[in-house]
Amino acid sequence: MKPFWSLARRMFRYRTMLIAALASAAVSASSLGVGIVATKPILENILSPTGKTLPQLAANLNTNAWIANRIPQAWIDSLPADRFSAIVWIMIGMAILTVLGAVMTFTHAFLSLTIVQRTVADIRRETFHRVLRLPLKDIVTVGAADKVSRIIADAAALESGLNSLISKSVSQSFKGVAFLIAAMYIEWKMSLGAIILGPGLYTVIRKLGKRIRRASRSAMQSQAGLYGAALESLQGLRVVKVHTTERYEAGRFHRINKDFMRMMLRVRTARAVSSPLVEALCIIVLGGLFLIPAHAVIKDHLDPSGVIAAFMALFAAGASLKPLTGIINDIQQSSASAARLREILEAAPEPGHDKTLPKLPRHHQSIEFRGVTLTYPNAQTPALRNVSLKVLHGQRIAVVGPNGSGKTSLLALVPRLFDPDSGAVLIDGHDIRDYSIRSLRKQIGVVTQETVLFKNSIRANIAYGADEVSQDRLIAAATKARAHDFIAALPQGYDTVVGEQGLTLSGGQRQRIAIARAVLREPAILILDEATSMIDADSEAKIAEAVAEFSAGRTCLIVAHRLSTVINADQIVVMDQGRLIDQGTHAELMQRCNTYRLIAQKQLLREE
Fold first, then answer.
1. pTM of the prediction?
2. Contact 571, 395 (CB under 8 A)
3. What is the rounded end-to-end Cα distance, in angstroms, of the chain?
């Protein structure tokens, strides 16, 4: 429960609104309690042939120690003297209290829901911000769907718990306490016996709540699996349809869905048994307690109107407190979601975002990989093994090797998408771990094989991550990437909105937009990870010219499978099984490196 209460405390950020909500609930409950107390004189006047008039009731009230003659005698004398008028006046007073209570109940609900919505929105925003700042390895290990589930589903479950806490539980608790006070005022002995029921009910609710919390946490984890299965299938829908695997994906989703349902059914059992169990205990105990004053009334030892009014107050208190069982269950269930959210909020962020770190000067000398070793989470073998490489500023380096040789992993170390387990990456002799990661990434342009476009205009996608981009700069970047012509031919030009993941464009068009995005950054370091793999030979030749022109004075690190790209590189680095096995020019490597010769013959030359 600690994670839930730690997040619930965030509602104190809206302290003024919270105080107003609690005050409204207190006024609403007080009006109901006063109404219950007022039923006793009504019953006395109805049931007793010697009922009192309104002035008599006011005079008796004036003798009460709490009132202490504060009602002016002139007010008492002005009250109507007949019994029926007394009943009418009391009913009017109760009607006024009822209206006041309704207004205060609305105010409490309105303010409570506002506080909860704003608090959960703050938590969602902070959680998403934290996820963006998590190390990439944390996302790779569990998958993005788990984080999406926490941000959306767990936040929704937390919202339900907070709403139960501040809106429902506060209202019901105030009402229950007001009715208990009214019952104690009318007939304290019988009411005191009813209060003894409290500890027993608390024990029952607490035991059931623990079961609900444990089952809910498992259910939230299963729900994250549902998100993952649905997201993967829908994002890869083209592949699913082409390979006719609709039945397979439906079956996979069905199995995960059944697991989720099984977990939710465990929650169902605990929730279903709690309410009738508490209700039965309340009725049995209150019934037993009623026997004592009933016997005293029969023996003329107690006033029947007082017993009836007290029992009505106790019944109203029980009716008000009964929903607390479900409310506590809601809080217990949402505590599992709160724990999952808190894990993200307390997770260590990606290193390098400390504002005290100095900015990395713009690269102008060299990039050095000094004995770097990298192992991915849950991997059995390292992706990189003691790799050392020095790249001079302005050089174009092509990295080749079989699949899984560590090419992409090596380049991912430069923008610190991953940090090596051992060794270091140095830019101009500076260990990049000692500098602001933002200043490092600001001077790097990256284009990958898997092009990422957002559901937005082409203009916004090219300018993504850049500040205050003019139209001229935008067109210049698109022209260098050979994207301007096809963009200008679109109905809305640069304002054309692309579909989700850019699927309304061809693969080559998407990659040219991604290249334009990298060009616009004016990076000192350009990383191309198979960036032309989805572009036809003619487009690639044009882009190669643009890249050659643009890369002048910049360091280019390229993972390539085309011979034309490799031959034009200043140096070729050959990777195999995570190791750097050779480097040199195309001619040198063809003579002395068997691995490169096989790659050139089976991959590079074949693709030409």
1. 0.72
2. yes
3. 63
